[in-house]
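Need a sequence for this fold. Nothing fancy.
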């Protein structure tokens, strides 16, 4: 674990894996909830966690890098279910990469409970983990100039759902029927780090 100062009152903590980043994020949230950590924001990413608004970043850098991070506790949060039609244009390509049928891709994906590891790229976009490493898929060689809102996509170890139309190079396997970002909703993002997510097939899936 390494820690880097960011400005006068922030700290970026780097760990070795996504699992460690999720565990560190959970531990920092626990400390803030119990009152032992005063911080304005805790922002996880793929292998880092940013602490913004620390009174003494130097002390926390020393404390965090000299301590062991306990494993993330079991998720007690409510399960978010996203209805999905497995009708994506890259479904056949993913099936070939996994060496299974298209129906089996849908079965495997819908049978997995995902966790939102972190958010980014676009408002409401969550990077979901949960599929075993053998199901990692490469990004498309040529990104699309426009991916439709609601597209369920795979890239590397992650699953994501595009909250709005945007360019993208992920493999599209389905379409989710959910509003991922609504500025009139509190909170605006349906998905947040640590949330549990399951995809529920609808239609002919």
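Here you go.
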């Amino acid at each position: 674990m390494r820690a880097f100062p960011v400005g006068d009152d922030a700290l970026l903590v780097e760990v070795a894996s996504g699992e460690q980043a999720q565990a560190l994020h959970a531990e920092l949230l626990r400390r803030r909830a119990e009152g032992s950590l005063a911080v304005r924001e805790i922002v996880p990413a793929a292998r880092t966690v940013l602490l913004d608004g620390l009174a003494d970043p130097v002390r926390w850098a020393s404390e965090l890098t000299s301590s062991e991070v306990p494993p993330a506790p079991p998720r007690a949060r409510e399960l978010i279910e996203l209805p999905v039609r497995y009708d994506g244009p890259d479904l056949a390509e993913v099936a070939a990469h996994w060496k299974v049928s298209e129906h089996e891709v849908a079965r495997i994906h819908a049978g997995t409970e995902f966790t939102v590891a972190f958010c980014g790229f676009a408002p409401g976009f969550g990077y979901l983990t949960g599929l075993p490493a053998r199901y990692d898929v490469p990004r498309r060689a040529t990104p699309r100039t426009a991916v439709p809102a609601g597209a369920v996509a795979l890239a590397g170890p992650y699953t994501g759902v595009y909250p709005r139309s945007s360019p993208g190079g992920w493999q599209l396997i389905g379409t989710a029927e959910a509003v991922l970002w609504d500025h009139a909703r509190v909170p605006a993002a349906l998905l947040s780090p640590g949330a549990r997510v399951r995809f529920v097939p609808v239609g002919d899936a």
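For context: The chain has four helices and 13 strands.
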